[in-house]
Specification:
Layout (H helix, E strand, L loop, with lengths): L1 E3 L13 H7 L3 E2 L2 H4 L4 E7 L8 E6 L4 E6 L5 E7 L8 E4 L5 E7 L2 E10 L2 E10 L6 E6 L4 E6 L6 E6 L33 H15 L5 H4 L11 E2 L5 E9 L3 E11 L5 E11 L17 E3 L2 E10 L2 E4 L2
Parallel strand pairs: 1-18
Antiparallel strand pairs: 2-6, 3-4, 4-5, 5-6, 7-8, 8-9, 9-10, 10-11, 11-12, 12-13, 14-15, 15-16, 16-17, 17-19, 19-20
Length: 318
């Protein structure tokens, strides 16, 4: 039997990763062209840090988003830039209290996220999942009070439920995708009133970001699939992992596992191991497999991709 064997170790850099992101958003400037080297698709102005000076939020189509704080001389200084990108139809505003409001309109309704600057970062304080277009309900989240208000139905038949959400970790801008359907696990309580641990919620939020960015095989990125809806589970060594197996006779097999390890500095090391096997040779097999030894059957190809997740950014490791 003829075989070819290939092992590849690949360290991948995201299109929206740290290098291109840093080149896109400049450290300081007075005009939008000073601050960003690419076409700005979204901009919003408001006083995030309550110093009486207007600040800026900017987003480009391909290279993420950034917050700039205004200076007394009329210029702006970069606070932080992120890999997180926005849908083309996103609506972004800043209210009088300096809260960044992001609204994504989807076929089912809309997703709204509210971020406020506090403790040297932008933190998710609430939002709304509106599904009245198709499923006739909405849910409003307040992470400060841990209150969830669900409204069912329309008009005179409308009813309202009040629920208490599980204790949440501090959810920062860039740590989760801007899509509530991907984050329902954050609010889940089982029949024994048990919720996921705050560490599990944090890691699962980062994992959902990876799915949203399609950072590995589509099988895991499809949250409608069994594997796509899976939440990373804790291992004996304290790390968390999830995995998926895709088999396509006559085409290829794909095994993918993703492992998250929290480092001592609070960052996360993420290892994506993928094993692929080409099965296209099967189309040449005789019914009785009598020609199996004459075929060139590729063995497994192994890929390892390693990232450090640091405050909303996936940074390549070489």
């Amino acid at each position: 039997m003829k075989k070819t064997f290939l092992i590849i170790t690949a360290i991948a850099l995201l299109t929206c990763g740290a290098t291109s992101n840093a080149q896109t958003f400049k450290p300081s400037g007075k005009t939008l062209s000073d601050l960003c080297s690419e076409k700005i698709t979204i901009s919003a102005e408001g006083d995030f840090n309550k110093d009486g000076i207007k600040d800026l939020f900017l987003c480009t189509e391909d290279n993420g988003s950034a917050f700039y704080f205004g200076k007394a001389d009329g210029g702006y200084k970069l606070f932080r830039n992120y890999d997180l990108r926005f849908r083309n139809n996103a609506k972004v505003t800043v209210n009088n209290n300096g809260v960044l409001r992001v609204q994504n309109d989807i076929d089912k309704g809309s997703d709204i996220f509210l971020f406020r600057f506090q403790n040297d970062g932008f933190v998710l304080i609430g939002g709304k999942k509106d599904r009245h277009k198709t499923e006739h309900y909405d849910e409003s989240y307040n992470f400060s009070t841990r209150k969830l208000i669900r409204t069912n139905g329309e008009g005179a038949s409308k009813t309202t439920e009040n629920k208490t959400m599980p204790l949440q970790p501090t959810i920062k801008y860039g740590w989760i995708p801007l899509e509530w359907d991907m984050l329902d696990f954050l609010f889940s309580i089982d029949e024994n009133d048990n919720a996921y641990s705050t560490e599990e919620m944090t890691i699962s939020g980062i994992y959902r970001r990876m799915q949203d960015e399609e950072m590995f095989h589509w099988m895991l990125c499809d949250i409608e699939s069994y594997y796509g809806r899976a939440i990373p589970h804790e291992n004996e060594d304290g790390s968390y992992s999830t995995f998926g197996i895709y088999e396509s006779p006559g085409s290829y097999n794909q095994d993918t596992d993703v492992t998250f390890t929290k480092l001592t500095d609070g960052k996360y090391k993420i290892v994506v191991n993928e094993i692929s096997q080409d099965r296209s040779y099967e189309s040449q097999l005789n019914e009785d497999f009598s020609n199996l030894d004459d075929l060139d059957i590729p063995e497994e190809e192994k890929y390892t991709t390693i990232y450090i997740f640091d405050d909303g950014k996936f940074i390549e490791q070489k």
